Amino acid sequence: MTSTGAPLSILYVDDDVQLGALVKTYLERDSAEIECEVTIETTPEAGLERIRSTDTTFDCVVSDYNMPKMDGVTFLEAVRDHRPELPLLLFSGEAPADVAAEIVRAGLTDYLQKGIGTDQYTMLVRRVEHAVEGEGQFDPETETELDGVGIVGPDERFEEADQTYASLYGYDPADVEGRHWTELHPTDEVEHIRTHVLPVVRGGGEWSGRSRGLRSDGSTFTESKLVTALDDDRLLIAVSELRESDLNGDD
């Protein structure tokens, strides 16, 4: 519900008609957390027409990823061009690591992976509420260069890491998966992350800045990093190595 007491108005775009109907049913009828009204469109083009219409006002837009002619990230970027203040969520069957870099670069508010059963709709309700309240978003203006992306699970171990992410630390992706995130940082940096980074992220925000990474050969390097929460207590980490010229501020 908005600050005026009116239900949240949500636009949901998905070419799967049956799934769209389920999303509408669960968000409108079974939500105990927020009261909302859901408008469904089955194509990004129709969704953009809705957004551009002066007769329609939405509080949040949720989109699938794989759709004909235009994917969900491209659609949501087009929405942002017209309505930059709107919270934008991707509700997709894609694995987080497969679309993570696109999500962050596009400045989307949040991402939730589609699952099996009704829990995914309960989680979607929470994500919509979280997005509308404005508690954090993937910021495309961050100074972080998104060279590599990794996903850390609730047990604080890597579920996935792309080739670039793994190679920054001297590993192959298969070697990173299953490792605890602390194994990729020197001891003093681990303490800093636990004290200053994780409380911010787990409180619903995001953290970006510099930290130090630990390579497999024992050497360290300065990294530019963004950490933000995904669904189910997972963390998305985007990293790039800062060269000497970057540290000195040279062109």
Query: What CATH first level of the largest domain would be assigned?
Result: Alpha Beta
Class by helix and strand content?
alpha/beta
- How many helical elements? 9
- Write down how many β-strands occur, each being a DSSP E stretch of 2 or more residues: 10
Radius of gyration: 19 Å
Shape summary: elongated
* CATH fold-level assignment of the largest domain: Rossmann fold
| Portion in beta strands | 15-25%
Biggest sheet record: 5 strands, parallel
Stretches where pLDDT is under 50 for at least 5 consecutive residues are 135-145
Q: Helical amount among residues, as a percent range?
A: 25-40%
CATH fourth-tier homologous superfamily of the largest domain: Response regulator
**What is the annotated CATH architecture of the largest domain?**
3-Layer(aba) Sandwich
Modified residues (4-aspartylphosphate): 64
Protein name: PAS domain S-box-containing protein
Pfam family, one: Response_reg
InterPro entries: Bact_response_regulator, CheY-like_superfamily, PAS, PAS-like_dom_sf, PAS_4, Sig_transdc_resp-reg_receiver
